């Protein structure tokens, strides 16, 4: 994984843990909600709500 992707993944995880929804994060990151969920799953985060 490139360094840039790692930094972006960390920012996505940070935003999610701070309470932002996957929809909000996907809009800011300009990627699909599915991609956000994949990144969060890669970090072993519980997405059940």
Q: Would you write up a description of this structure?
A:
Helix 2 (22-29) crosses helix 3. It is globular, with a radius of gyration of 10 Å. The protein has 49 residues and is an all-alpha fold. 67% of the residues lie in helices and 0% in strands. It has one domain (3-43).
C-alpha Rg (nearest Å): 10 Å
Percent range for helical residues?
A: 55-70%
Major sheet details: none
Beta-sheet strand percentage? under 5%
- Principal-axes geometry comes out as globular
Q: Structural class, from secondary structure content? A: mainly alpha
Q: What's the mean pLDDT score?
A: 90
Number of separate helices: 3
Can you give me a brief rundown of this structure?
By secondary structure, the protein is mainly α. It has helices at residues 3-17, 22-29, 33-42.
